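During the no-cost extension, the postdoctoral fellow (Dr. R.K.) reprocessed legacy sequence entries with the updated structure-token encoder. One reprocessed record is reproduced below for audit purposes.
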Amino acid sequence: MLDIPANSITFLFTDIEGSTQLWEQHPEAMKVALARHDRILRQAIESHHGHVFKTVGDAFYAAFPSAPDAVSSALDAQRVIQAESWGETPIKVRMALHTGAADERDGDYFGPALNRVARLLSAGHGGQTLLSAATEESVRNQLPKDTELHDMGERRLKDLTRPEHIYQLLVPGLPANFLPLKTLDTFHTNLPAQLTSFIGREKEMAAIKQLVLTNRLTTLTGPGGTGKTRLSLQVASNLLDSFPDGVWFIELAPLTDPVLIPQTVLGILGLREDAGRLPLDLLSNYLQSKRALLIFDNCEHLIEASAHLTESLLQACPQLHIITSSREALGIAGETPFRVPSLSIPDTHQITSAEKLAQSEAVRLFIDRAKTALPAFTLTDANAPAVAQICARLDGIPLAIELAAARVKLLKVEQVAERLDDRFRLLTGGSRTALPRQQTLRAMIDWSYDLLSESEQVLLRRLSVFAGGWTLEAAEEVCSIKDEDGRTLAPHASAGVKDEGRSKEGVLHPSSFILHPLIGPFDVLDLLDQLVNKSLVVVDADIVPEGYEDTEARYHLLETVRQYAREKLMEAGEGISTRDRHLNYFMRLAERAEPEFTGPHQVAWMKQLDTELDNLRAALEWSLEQDVLAGLRLASALKWFWVTYDRFRDGSEKLAQLLTKPQALVRTPERAKALAAQSLLLPYMGNFTQARMWGQESISIYDELGDRLGLADGLLALASCAGNFDHARSLIAQGLEHYQALGDKPGLARALGMQGEFSDPADYLQARRYLEQSLAICRELGHIAGIGANLINLGTSANRQGEYALARVWLEEALEVNRAFGRVRMAETLMAVAELSFRDGKYDQARTCLEEVLSIMNENGQAFSDPWAITRMGYIALRLNDPARAGKLFKESLKRFKNAGSTIGIAYTLEGYASLAVLQNQLEQASRLFAWSDVARANVSNIRPPTEQADVDHDLATIRTRLDEAAFAAAQAAGRAMSIDEAIADALESASS
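Re-encoded structure tokens follow.
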């Protein structure tokens, strides 16, 4: 790359006219000719201090430090090419030069100057050399001898907002006469000049261009503000060469009478009306033999008339092509719909720098329009997160982004982002010359909403209660109301009574009711289909995970549409009733899923609930206001979901809020079950005291109610957070008695399994007997999940006792059983196999198993098992004497355990850090971390397994041989006194140093 000032580069672009045809007709000769062409151009460019920075096919892109050098290079190249004998492959090269500023990155140039010289090149012909006004000014007094410039005037170039004054280079001996320049001025068209730059959409433009050339009718569909009009104009400007009889733009938005459409088209084509003939006949006759392109823009409000006119013209005019833009397709034969997506938006969770953020189309548009409003505006690393948030929350809708960017005249981008919750008041003030519906965000959506039927409006506003999308089943349940007389009474907020016409006593006043059309469950599908067709509902076609192709289709509203529809829902007085149905639907869904969490369809149900997480959270938020008992049922039914997906904090916080509500203080089965769920979740955050309190109240309520099955379940939940192993074993034994009395074999198997897990660590054989009894019952019942779980526990227990051969027997069967059960259970099994391989010294095998665990967990979106696998990989790195990798792995897992609030996970990882410190001879730090871990494990009643304790004892013995007794005692005391945050900081600080 030459050292060229970035603000004064002269670019020379060249390509061969008609090269595609030459390749088709003379492929072998073209190989030879192209090689000669390349040598000629490189010689001419490099001999005049130029640099070829890119070649694409037969096109050359070169940069020069001065305009005179670039002109001399072009002249030399054209002379040599003209003098060459090309034989059957006559090479004619067109060239263009432009001087301006550009950004250089990775050996390439970027910026508006490149766009201008490319468009200038496309206007020329083979053998012709064109200069922009900027280059002409730079060489005006330094032209080579016998050279002059021919002034071709100002011309409009495709895609460029500012016309270009073009000059042709004239030299004796080179051709001087060419066909007219291929600029917008020379084509039959009424395409309006664009006053702002066009951003992005490269893929969409290429796809639509191909559709228009190969299909007679292409309809661009999409919600308002997505840029359908601008995209159709951009595509049309690129197709001017393909339609010699003209490209004509017909704006239908101002029209209200469908009869006026043909007359409008006549006027645009310059045709006079004839009193004796219908306008449609005049149009058909005129266009019958012409190869032309018509663009009918904004057809949605005149959809039937637009469809009739389009179909009639296409039938009568065989060479005519038409582009239409509308909220919905015309629905006629031969139509090819193309849904115009929003602009690409950034991932707001992964903003690394302003430079990378600017790769997003939405951000690029925001920057461009913000600079128009405030020329001093720049994207920086400081304001990048706010810009990303604006673009993402506005769904990449171009009109909304342009309106937001205009606000930077008065507000910082951070202030704009903060005000998006009231976006309909914020995003106003569009161009005064734009259509009224394009001047504010609310007017844009009003236009679409007002075109809906009453039933479609009702469904749209009810769909606004969903968060993060919905399925057809959910929409049918939440958005339909059965009523015998075909109408449904719904309260109207405008009746003057707040909260859907409820009095202080909650009674609905008859005067507050209005009639809405009935939507029954069977009506939802057709209405939903209409809303999809009209671009107000989006089908999530690309979110079905691999291996789950039979998952039910999902739908969602763009957030801007959802906020608008939510306002309409409240205005219609349907907010409370619709959100009640939403809560009840997801409560029932969770209760259907609950028994499946330990069955063969566990993964499918877990993934379904994970997909519905936003809806579950919204339903729980509503239950806090409206129906606490439903909220208790929902949150407690999800207890294993909260645990599996590392969201126990989510579940526990909601349960805590619900359990303190006055409605939840009554000692009901709902409260008892919620208390038991809370006692299961709290230990994951190290809160055993509170967990035991909730668990004890739970079994007390079950006992009062005489619910023996609930009491048994509550006892097992309480056992999980008992103060010590003796207490846990006592509670499990009580639960076991109830299951035996009830004849509940699945419960009996679960209790026996827990007896095995909570047996005295010194009584390994007794633990094995319990687990074997549980396994036998599960085999009898054909309970695959229970069989797999017991096999894993038996294998893990044997492994931790050092009985590796026996552990391998159990775990090999576990692999076979759990392979049929599902990928998540396979991950649990592989974790146990990895631990066994580690203890057996087979480190490569252990690492392979853990890598597969991480792969399974990532594909299923389950993060909680990840840190355990990552920490264990860190221990493997220690055994392989790779401290740098071990430290990196421990740091990653520690971050995840801390976010999850898992005390035992943090303790296990800090023990790894302690072993790493021993390896690095940081003995006092190792002593502190081991001592802290001892205390942490005691606090959560988690005793180290014998094999792990042996490792710790080995490290402690090494420490005591190298560290004097006083220093060791002081370090141990300091470690026991550290808080969890201090222990983490100690590990991280020493590791980083």
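The first strand starts at residue 9 and ends at 16. The first helix runs from residue 19 to 25. The remaining legacy entries will be reprocessed before the final report is submitted.
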